[in-house]
Amino acid sequence: MKFSFKTIFALLAMAFLVISCRTSDDDPIDPTNPNSEIEGLLKIKEITNDTHIIELYSKSGATNLGYNDIKLRIKNKSTNQYEKSATVKWTPLMHMTMMTHSCPNSAVQKVTSDGSLYSGYIVFQMPGNASEYWDLKIDYTIGTNDYTATTVIDVPVSAKQTVSSFIGSDNVKYVVAYIEPKSPKVAINDMVLGVWKMQDMMTFPVVDGYTVKVDPRMPGMGNHSSPNNVNATQSAAGKLYNGKLSLTMTGYWKINLQLAKADGTILAGQEVTETNLASTIFFEIDF
Question: What is the pLDDT at residue 33?
Answer without folding.
Answer: 73
